[in-house]
Each structure stands twice: as structure tokens, then as C-alpha cells.
Amino acid sequence: MPASFEPEALKAQTVAARTYTLSKMERTVEAHPDADVCTDITCCQAYISMENARANWGSQADAYEAKIREAVTATDGEAILYGGVPILAVFHSSSAGLTRAAGQVWQNDLPYLKPVDSPEAKETIPNYYSRVDFTPAALKEKLLAKIPSADLSGDRKSWLKNAVRDSAGSVETVEVGGVTVRGGTVRAALGLRSACFEWELQDGNFVFYVTGYGHGVGLSQYGADAMAESGADYQTILTHYYTGVTVEVFNG
To answer: Do the Cβ atoms of 91 and 219 come closer than 8 Å?
Structure first.
């Protein structure tokens, strides 16, 4: 989350990141059996050293570091709990106005990861709407690398079809060369910013139009900042994005 965001948004992010780590500590991860958490964003959480962060912040380094330290100190020990247990507090950059249920993205639903409205300040979010173009050859190569059983030998218009969208407008499933896959699989194959995408053939190429950034489940960082700007405190933000939870000191 950008350090320029509102203090209450930074507190919400702090508690979410802490809770996510606590939940990881409760189970063994195949990729790193001897560690609770890693810095691979596709596995656990992104991480940047303070030295690199300060270099990125430039003249704002002291002020931004102070903001983050205050967010950590003010929420010391607090976690997001469901039934007294730390939740899998996933988060993303920005949604398409509505977050997604866990089961719409991954294998299983979770009672606290339900779709909720998200007040995205679209005009202030970098690349909130993005466009990506692919030649047919490039698209075929990328899709077959992830979906080798797809048949992309026929009419290009049939390569992707029958998209099923969830309540947030994201692609839940789509047929790729006769194989039904999750929208997230296509997103990963093509490097799209989110699974909220549409496509068309334009001058012989495939053009994808994408909204938002991230998987769309749990806390939206830009949504949290918009709520904070409107006066919401971090507990209100967290209990909005995670359904039926409490925010309290965890002594487990």
C-alpha cells in the first residue's frame, strides 16, 4: 500500500498483513516447510526492505517511515479474527467496484471473504483501466503454455468464448479452445492486471480491456483509502471488507 495513503488505511493494511502472517503460522506451506512465510508474492506476501523503500520515497522518506511506524504501533498486537482465530486476510490493490468471494477465485469459499461494495476512486488509481494487445501467435503461445490441452487451431473467434462472470463482473470461468478454465488462469497466462476483463478481435489482433488490479478478494487497498478519506477508521474498514469478523488483540 502506498505510504501516501490515509493513516487509517495504513492501519487497516497493517492489521491485515499481520493477520495474514499469523494465519500462515498455523500451517505448513509446501513451498517452504521450514519457514512460516516467504517474500514470494504468488505464495505469501510482497516485501521491500526499508532501505529500498526509503530510496523510492526520496524526500518524503522520513515522513512516510514515521506514518508506517505509527500505523504499526497504534495497532500493536491486533488481528482480524473469525471465531477467535486469525483469518486468511488476503488483500489486493483495487477492485471493479465490488470485491469477490474466495470461491470465485480459488477452490473454497470462506465465510468472511464475501463480495462487498468497494468505493474505488477510479480517477486517482494508476492504470485502473488498462488495455493489452496480442497478436494471434503471441496469444496462442501464452495460452497453450498454461492450458496445453486447449485447441486453438480453429476460427480465432472461438478461441475464447462463453465467459461466466461473477457478481463483480470478473470472469469466473471461460472456455479456452474448448477447455473451461478459471478467469484467473487466463489472467495469469496473459499477465493481465485482473480477471475483470473483456476482449475483442481488432484489426486481426486480440485486444483485452481490464478493470482494477489484483485478485479482487478481501481488502481493496484503494477502496480502504477512499473509506478513510470519507472518515472511516481502520476497524470500520476491516469489518467492511471481511464479513463477520472482530478486530482485537490476539493472544494465541
So the answer is: yes
* Beta-bridge partner residues of 134: 206
What is the Rg, in whole angstroms, of the alpha carbon atoms belonging to the chain? 20
pLDDT score, position 235: 98
Could you report the per-residue pLDDT of 154-194, keeping only the tens digit for each? 899 999 999 999 888 999 999 999 999 999 999 999 999 99
10 Å CB burial of residue 148 (0-12, 13-18, 19+) is exposed
Low-confidence stretches of the chain (pLDDT beneath 50): none
> What distance in Å separates the CA atoms of residue 243 and residue 167, rounded to the nearest whole number?
16
Residues linked to residue 132 through DSSP beta bridges, in sequence order: 208
- Which three cell numbers, joined as nine digits, stand for 121? 476512486
Contact 149, 208 (CB under 8 A): no
The pLDDT of residue 3: 96
Report which secondary-structure segment, H or E, holds 45: none
Q: How far apart are CA 56 and CA 231, in angstroms?
A: 28
Amino acid 69: pLDDT? 97
Side-chain-facing half-sphere of 205: CA atoms under 13 Å? 9
